[in-house]
Amino acid sequence: MPVPLTREALGHLPAGVEGPRFAPADLSPGILHVGVGNFHRAHMQVYLQRLFDRGLSRDWGVVGAGVRPADAAMRERLCAQDHLFTVVELDPTGLTARVVGAMTGFAPVEPAATIAAMADPRIRIVSLTVTEGGWFVDARTDGFDADHPDIRADAAAPETPRTAFGMILAALRARRTAGHAPFTVLSCDNLPHNGAVARRTVAGLARLQDPAFADWVEAEVAFPNSMVDCITPATTDRERALVADRFGLIDAVPVACEPFRQWVLEDVFPQGRPALEAAGAEFVADVAPYELMKLRILNGGHAAIAYPAALLGHHFVHDAMADPRIAAWLEALTTREIQPTLAPIPGVSYDDYRRLIRDRFANPEVGDTIPRLALDGSNRQPKFILPTIRDALAQGRPVEGLALEVALWCRYCAGTDEAGRTIPPNDESWETLRSRALAAREDPGAFLSQARIFGDLGADPRFAAAFGEKLRSLWSRGVAATLADYVGG
Questions:
Q1: What phi, psi does 145 have (nearest 5°)?
Q2: Residue 28: how many CB atoms within 10 A of its CB?
Q3: What pLDDT is stored for residue 140 in this prediction?
Q4: Where is the Mannitol dehydrogenase N-terminal domain (predicted)?
Q5: Which of 127, 169, 179, 437 could disulfide-pair with 414, CB 3.0 to 4.6 Å?
Q6: How many Å apart are CA 272 and CA 57, to the nearest integer?
């Protein structure tokens, strides 16, 4: 019979399941992480467990925190399991499972408790995965969105914040008053220059509250850039059943992920850090070239396959990659238009990286879904596709394929696939996107005029002309023929 996952079970885990090589009770907290979702647990916590298993950095245990109802649900499930969970690596040559015990606790999901946990002087890093859309970035200026209602609320009432960033500032004030050093703020989200974005968001909110305090934040708080990578699908009953049937554990919140993970960081941690290089992380002077490679080839590649795959009726990513029309489209777009915008990185082959990404997408064990890749396009397109278009235009390079990617997104937002099936809403701006996408069938500018998404890019004549041509082809000739034209072109 499957065994419920608790600390009591660690002494007799089922055969084939690797457990912590340390007693979780022997860890002490050093990191507070906001947003304890699947990616964080498959990524940072696995790196930390590698260290703890070797007897290293055991004063860097993780305290969970959150601000959303989903965080409270995760806390309830993890607390019931003594903060343990299973990570299954979906290697097509053979699945493996390990129980991760890198957490020391999970703060109650309410502002006062989160602020108190951040203010604990043992916490030297506050890390976050709040998704691409959670950083209050104004797409029109690529700057801080000071007009967002949640930001305005936190600016008006710093003592009772509703955002993670307001809580960070409240905790930094408390630490400063108590004479404790500020923690480092580490973004682990898929954002270009994520440390700089974190600095801009935290300091921008601080400036609305107290300009003098904002000056202190900018001078004293470190915000290192990092690049993170590990494909981690959502947990469903499929993953829970896999852990129970294959590995003999009852786990309410297992994580299934690919066997590949990467973490590249700037070494800017004034209050210290865990010895992550001993667990396979890379520390470099400048993360920007690595993050750009990943954001454009991997995240941009996800966007490139998501919309044609959805329109052609695919549900799983590996099935889409088995479709020669989509595989050829991804290869052509990446080699012709995405890779040429990237500056060389010494010792890195973009061709090898592209082939690695292709193989990762095609892994059938991961079970990643097209609906997940297509999610939240109004926040993801400005991060993973539109900057590539801007660079290509500035460099005088072709943008026909990139314009086709945006046209595929627009066609998807019209709300039906090529078989006439309804596409469920999957974006906070879905109704606006859908109405603009339908209008764009006659007037392509109706979609590109969304300044929140496109800024001034929608008015660029080269891009607008290419977008209009590709969108008309999608409606008149269909996805397969339009992709074939580009691939054969």
A1: -90, 85
A2: 11
A3: 67
A4: 30-277
A5: 437
A6: 11
Question: Long-range contacts made by residues 239-247, C-beta under 8 angstroms, separation at least 24?
Answer: 239/88, 242/88, 242/95, 243/86, 243/88, 243/97, 244/2, 245/2, 246/95, 246/97, 247/14, 247/16, 247/17, 247/86, 247/88, 247/97
Question: Which pairs count as long-range contacts for 80-84, CB under 8 Å and 24+ apart, including other chains?
Answer: 80/252, 81/4, 81/5, 81/6, 81/251, 81/252, 81/253, 82/6, 82/7, 82/24, 83/24, 84/5, 84/6, 84/7, 84/10, 84/24
The pairing of beta strand 255-257 with beta strand 262-266: unpaired
CA distance 391 to 397: 8
3 state SS of 288 = helix
Buried b vs exposed e over 320-330: b needs ≥16 C-beta within 10 Å? bbebebbbebb
- In this prediction the pTM is 0.85
- Per-residue pLDDT reduced to its tens digit, 12-40: 999 999 999 999 999 999 999 999 999 99
Which of 134, 121, 122, 204 is CA-nearest to residue 169? 204
Tens-place pLDDT, residues 160-205: 999 999 999 999 999 999 999 999 999 999 888 899 999 999 999 9
Tokens standing for residue 427: 């974006």
Residue 284 one-letter amino acid: V
C-beta separation of 228 from 263 below 8 A: yes
Residue 137's pLDDT band (cuts 50, 70, 90): confident
Residue 122, both tokens: 């043992």
Q: Of 312, 323, 322, 488, which is closest to residue 400 (Cα–Cα)?
A: 488
Backbone phi, then psi, for 252, in 5-degree steps? -75, -25
Give the Cα separation of 75 and 83 in Å (integer): 8
| 452-486 pLDDT per residue, tens | 999 999 999 999 999 999 999 999 999 999 999 99
Other CB atoms within 10 A of residue 93 CB: 7
Q: How confident is the model over 38-55, as a mean pLDDT?
A: 98
DSSP 8-state code for residue 14? P
CA distances from 166 to 67, 114, 144 (A): 11, 11, 14
Residue 160: count of CB within 10 angstroms of its CB: 12
Distances (CA, A) of 81 to 4, 70, 93, 104, 232: 8, 17, 30, 12, 21
Structure tokens at 99: 């129980």
The alpha carbon of residue 103 and the mean position of all alpha carbons in its chain are separated, in whole angstroms, by: 21
Average pLDDT, the chain: 96
Query: What does the pLDDT read at residue 139?
Result: 62
How far apart CA 119 and CA 107 sit, in angstroms, is 12
- Residues 6 or more apart whose CB falls under 8 angstroms from that of 480 comprise 312, 325
What domains can be seen in the chain, in order of their start residue? 3-284 (3.40.50.720), 288-488 (1.10.1040.10)
